[in-house]
Amino acid sequence: MSSMRVSGEGLVLGVALDAVLGDPKRWHPVAGFGRVASAAERHVYGDSRARGVVYVAALVGGAGVAGVVLERMSRRPLVHCLVTAGVTWAVLGGTSLGREGLYMARVLERGDVGAARKRLSHLCARDPRGLDARDLSRAVVESVAENTSDASIAPLVWGAVAGIPGLLMYRAVNTLDAMVGYRNPRYERFGWAAARLDDVANWVPARVTGGLVALCSGREAWRVLRRDGAKHPSPNAGRCEAAFAGALGVRLGGVNAYGGRVERRPEMGDGRAPEVRDIRRAVRLSAAVTFAAAAVVWSVR
């Protein structure tokens, strides 16, 4: 049995485990990595790009070494398949993303804007103060769109390309970006390497995500993706959000606030502003895209 076939079957099994179980409730490996990264930051931090490069290289390199060790310890096909499945389950976040989106849908459907504002930080760093139900709906739909790539498609792409090391290194890169990849006084320089490496790691997966959205939903998603995908300031998030905008028939983008900093982002799509009911549609589309990616991996394994 070829290693490519074993890895493919392990990736698909990992998607199934994530769909059924969601994130591990305790001893989550990604949370453990985050604690290690926080401890390392206390020792390495300095207001310079060079220190940030060292920080990222050590942690991502360490994740890669761990992946290589796991690969070598699981040479037998069945063991390798099961280990790949376990690692895939650990690094995927699609089911948890969907659950967060559905929680936001439920509280907004019953008119509890306050609860939705408090919960928004689980999905994005946007300042929730002053956001009404429509603003929150747009924030959730945009976050589900962008994170479909980060949480599901990108790990599968890197797992297909580089096996267990690819899975672990991608999740390390993405986690570090979430921790230090901010444009604020503390991380403007130190977080530069994490942010840039995350852009590189997600360049192909974001475009794969956009293509899969179009495959799952039709021509309008493809049209809006091609027309509006490059408008977003992120080289990757815009591809996902534009495709979702076309698929859902909504208009994304506009004014966003992040800790006192206001960004005016170009609009994507030709439809109406997102409404609460569009959150559930976005979550269903995100799940469909993840399963489509798994089907592609299965077909080419």
Automatic annotation (TrEMBL):
<dbReference type="GO" id="GO:0048472">
    <property type="term" value="F:threonine-phosphate decarboxylase activity"/>
</dbReference>
<keyword id="KW-1133">Transmembrane helix</keyword>
<feature type="transmembrane region" description="Helical">
    <location>
        <begin position="282"/>
        <end position="300"/>
    </location>
</feature>
<comment type="function">
    <text>Converts cobyric acid to cobinamide by the addition of aminopropanol on the F carboxylic group.</text>
</comment>
<feature type="transmembrane region" description="Helical">
    <location>
        <begin position="153"/>
        <end position="173"/>
    </location>
</feature>
<feature type="transmembrane region" description="Helical">
    <location>
        <begin position="52"/>
        <end position="70"/>
    </location>
</feature>
<dbReference type="GO" id="GO:0009236">
    <property type="term" value="P:cobalamin biosynthetic process"/>
</dbReference>
<keyword id="KW-0472">Membrane</keyword>
<comment type="similarity">
    <text>Belongs to the CobD/CbiB family.</text>
</comment>
<keyword id="KW-0812">Transmembrane</keyword>
<dbReference type="GO" id="GO:0005886">
    <property type="term" value="C:plasma membrane"/>
</dbReference>
<comment type="pathway">
    <text>Cofactor biosynthesis; adenosylcobalamin biosynthesis.</text>
</comment>
<protein>
    <recommendedName>
        <fullName>Cobalamin biosynthesis protein CobD</fullName>
    </recommendedName>
</protein>
<dbReference type="InterPro" id="IPR004485">
    <property type="entry name" value="Cobalamin_biosynth_CobD/CbiB"/>
</dbReference>
<feature type="transmembrane region" description="Helical">
    <location>
        <begin position="77"/>
        <end position="98"/>
    </location>
</feature>
<keyword id="KW-1003">Cell membrane</keyword>
<keyword id="KW-0169">Cobalamin biosynthesis</keyword>
<dbReference type="GO" id="GO:0015420">
    <property type="term" value="F:ABC-type vitamin B12 transporter activity"/>
</dbReference>
<keyword id="KW-0436">Ligase</keyword>
<dbReference type="Pfam" id="PF03186">
    <property type="entry name" value="CobD_Cbib"/>
</dbReference>
<dbReference type="GO" id="GO:0016874">
    <property type="term" value="F:ligase activity"/>
</dbReference>
